[in-house]
Amino acid sequence: ATANTRLVGLEIAYLIRKLQEYRGLQPEDVHLIGHSLGAHTAAYAGERIPGLGRITGLDPAEPYFQGMGPIVRLDPSDATLVDVIHTDGRSVFRLEIPGYGMSHACGHLDFYPNNGKEQPGCALSQEGAATIPLTLIKDGIEEASRVLLACNHIRAIKLFIDSINGKCPYVAHRCPSYQHFLSGNCFKCTSGNCALMGYHASLPITTTRQNVSENDVISGSFSVPVAPQPGKYFLATGRDFPFCQRHYRFTVELAKPKVAEPWVQGHLTAGIFSERGALRNIDLTPKGTARLEHGTTYQVVVTNPHDLGDRIRKVELAWTHDMNVLEPTTLCLFWCNSHLYVKSIQVETMQMPSRE
């Protein structure tokens, strides 16, 4: 199959030329979408058609392509716009279920939902146990095998489909890494740092000078169209349709009274309330527990499918101290203070680029 990708790409290029010759098709109006090997197949076609409008690579295949030169794989020179969604960038040499997609950037806009490696709901203990029997009955053993072995790999297809007519925009932010993104360091749409993942990636981006909700559509004289800058874009998605999530940044400033310990370890949750509704039991320590130092500021990005808008009226925090008997420094018995002291908390909705 890998060897045939170049041949199939040449056939696609031949078809485009004939449509151009007999029907007046303009190359800039052509949008090729390819999954896995299909992404590289589209690249071979674009290589032969100068001025091809757009190629969307849905988790381009890794084996025989990652680490190779641009002439062998999908790259930005294959079309005017090359946008890529990476969802299965784990190594193909894993002893467990391997990854089939590329982790290396290979387009103008490279999107990495959930860091582009393991997607929510694709763990064997989750989707494997819950949906395999039903899929086997409804769609047969072939489709069930795909869900079991290639859940992460085919998630790129589902995300792209969901982005076409979905009301929730897949807002992604240009950032050095996914960890930087989750820490809230890449949160504002300035200087072309935002892009829409999926079908609408080619559309102009509009932002305002102030924060707005991810659900708001911006128009009028105060809006400023900004083209997304080439680079790696990160976002978080859910485990089921609709996959699109709203992003909220929590900034917790910790106080440091004399009675407080230098640091405490535990689990922090929050509830936020607005005119549009409420979200409860939001996990602010997604790694289970966190060591929080008094006198510092803690920042984290969390996601939820519900849009609460910008007018947050109330925030509630719940703190549970955690002790690990295997780590003596975390023990807090009769002689220490296990309370967490909070000076202030700020909740922001991720700044929203809209479709022009």
Automatic annotation (TrEMBL):
Cellular location(s): Secreted
GO CC field: extracellular space
Protein's name in the database: Lipase domain-containing protein
GO molecular function: lipase activity; serine hydrolase activity
Organism: Anopheles maculatus
Family statement drawn from the similarity comment of this UniProt entry: Belongs to the AB hydrolase superfamily. Lipase family.
A Pfam cross-reference name: Lipase
The organism's place on the tree of life at top rank: Eukaryota
UniProt GO BP: lipid catabolic process
InterPro entries: AB_hydrolase_fold, Lipase, Lipase_N, TAG_lipase
Alphabetic keyword roster: Secreted
Ranges for domain Lipase: 1-202
